[in-house]
From TrEMBL:
Gene3D superfamilies, A to Z: Leucine Aminopeptidase, subunit E, domain 1
NCBIfam families: PRK00431.1-6
Ranges for domain Macro: 1-168
PANTHER family assigned: GANGLIOSIDE INDUCED DIFFERENTIATION ASSOCIATED PROTEIN 2-RELATED, MACRO DOMAIN-CONTAINING PROTEIN
Pfam families to which the protein is assigned, alphabetical: Macro
Designated name of the protein: Macro domain-containing protein
Domain of life: Bacteria
Amino acid sequence: MTTLTLVQGDITRQSADAIVNAANSSLLGGGGVDGAVHRRGGPAILAECRALRASRYGRGLPTGQAVATTAGELDARWVIHTVGPVFSADEDRSALLASCYRESLRVADGLGARTVAFPAVSTGVYRWPLEDAARIAVDTVRATETEVERVTFVLFDERAHAAFAARL
Ligand code: ADP
């Protein structure tokens, strides 16, 4: 049984076995969660991301997939980088957003992580509507078989927190 909990705040201040980063496919950092993870986590994370690019992801990490690095200075053992889809009004990309949560949990299981913190993937720069993103996030985590004991959704602001609370 996985327990789902909600927190409002900065995911880089969370303590968990694994913290999920809403990365972009370059793995080289960006704004939002990604910027905060690298800023607070320090250069070790970026160095590992660069190595992953050189070895396995020369074309970038595909949307919907996830990969782990160590967590640098963060209060976590690993950062799991996942690439959310950009929201599109013309094309249903929700399977890709669901895949981010499922694949992140699969990577967490591979590492032996028992507590995982997720941000609201794709709801920032990638513009996914919050209510729909909350539905996909909560329903996917609930439907995924995993050894992870606690999943914490870390929502940056009141609006995102309310959307996730409503779905939970
Ligand atoms: P994406 O590119 O996948 O949309 P963003 O990082 O731009 O990712 O935003 C994802 C969500 O994370 C947004 O709801 C944003 O408000 C929120 N967010 C931004 N910074 C942080 C942070 N430090 N901790 C938790 N959530 C954050």
